[in-house]
Amino acid sequence: MSTNNAVVPNDLSAFWMPFTANRQFKKSPRMFVAAKDMHYTTSDGRQVLDGTAGLWCVNAGHARPKIVEAISKQAAELDYAPAFQMGHPKAFELANRLVDLTPDGLDHVLFTNSGSESVETALKVALAYQKVIGQGARSRLIGRERGYHGVNFGGISVGGIVTNRKMFGTLLTGVDHLPHTHNLAKNAFSKGLPEHGVDLADELERIVTLHDASTIAAVIVEPVAGSTGVLIPPPGYLQRLRDITKKHGILLIFDEVITGYGRLGTPFGADYFGVTPDILVTAKGLTNGVIPMGAVMVSKEIHDAFMQGPEHLIEFFHGYTYSGNPIASAAGLATLETYKDEGLLTRGADLAKVWEDGLHSLKGLPHVIDIRNIGLVGAVELEPIAGHPTKRAFAAFLAAFEQGLLIRTTGDIIALSPPLIVTESQIDQIITTLAGILKTLE
Ligand SMILES: Cc1ncc(COP(=O)(O)O)c(C=O)c1O
């Protein structure tokens, strides 16, 4: 299979790799040893075009000078400061910048180290907020089928991907799920938002009727479900969720770990859809994927509700050793600066049509049963091989890597999300390579 093993460690067995087919990988390793802008370098010296911004995170491309410089400077100046009862200026500066960037009304920021931690943080804020305002019976959380909210217990409980849930016991209790919005029969090959399915938001009313609003704390959804294979909501769907949550005193949480920081051609998915949640969950693109960091933006109303009682007492018993870590904060500031300097948070909108046309040119190729796109996100769904789900898409992934293109697959769906610095000719290269592979797939 791969010849990419010229520079590899002697023994690959010790590292139990995350979300990886370990035995397959270790028989035929795929190693990156360097990266610059849109390309990785493999251990056997090949260039691989990054069609996925790493894992949906390297939005400004690789090894960007401002970010590299900020990290090394910060490491030498202040490497670490305790996160609890102490501070350092850059975390406050970054929080202020984020508040400026997010939709009006989201005025406070909690820092974490990953998307998963951001999700747990958001769920805990939501539950605690309801308690603080005297609504302690509101303990239920509502997620969505096929949702991905990271891998921790709260996240997999509200998440809706069976493989991520089924091995881990009873999870959080008191969780319900909305139906997902994917509908191949009615919406296949939609360009941008699919037409059908806005009424699926009304399922929230059914859940409210079942449990009573007075027991429900929050609803969490990804504006566009990413990791499950790019499921795009119909027009009006998110607004309807907003209306129903507001009507019933339920908090709305947007998990924007993927849709945040320019992926849809707007700073956040909330901007794209014109719907502001009470809590906005981010990570990944916040630091361009370079240093682990997440940020959870919350409304002033939520924050202020906690600011009561004696002033020497901690208001919210939650946080991480590395919340607002100085090097991560420096990386975040330099990343936001890079986005601003290069107009990257809206560049996806400029490229969206070229991207859409390129992707939909794959219609009609063997096994392709749907193509979806929004901003600089795309998905090509393949008919699974009977009895061997995921095998066909995984074969496409391996072939793409051999041919110098990094794609991502989930189930039998190919997901694409290049860095926002991608050029039109690189989009062309992605599409042409993919077309060649699709023609030869079994
Ligand atoms: C929507 C969403 N939430 C949460 C996460 C988890 O983020 P992390 O892997 O940084 O924990 C992801 C990761 O892909 C995600 O897409």
What features would you describe in this structure?
With 442 residues, this protein is of the alpha/beta class. Helix content is 37%, strand content 16%. The protein has helices at 22-27, 53-56, 65-77, 89-101, 115-132, 153-158, 162-165, 184-187, 203-211, 237-247, 269-273, 300-306, 326-341, 344-360, 391-402, 424-440; strands spanning 32-36, 39-42, 47-50, 106-112, 140-144, 175-178, 216-221, 251-255, 279-282, 294-299, 368-374, 377-382, 405-406, 408-410, 413-416. It has a 7-stranded mixed β-sheet with strand order 4-10-9-8-7-5-6, sandwiched between helices. A 4-stranded mixed β-sheet has the order 1-2-3-13. The chain is globular, with a radius of gyration of 22 Å. The model has no long low-confidence stretch (mean pLDDT 97). The protein binds pyridoxal-5'-phosphate. Pyridoxal-5'-phosphate (PLP) is lined by residues 114-116, 119, 148-150, 222, 226-227, 255, 257-258, 283.
Strand percentage lies at 15-25%
Uncertain stretches: none
Q: Return the average pLDDT rounded to an integer.
A: 97
- Name the ligand types: pyridoxal-5'-phosphate
**SS-based class:** alpha/beta
| Biggest beta sheet attributes | 7 strands, mixed
From the spread of the alpha carbons, the general shape counts as: globular
Going across the biggest sheet, name each strand in turn: 4-10-9-8-7-5-6
**What distance separates the N and C termini?**
16 Å
Gyration radius from CA atoms, angstroms: 22 Å
Number of helices: 16
Helix content: 25-40%
β-strand number:
15
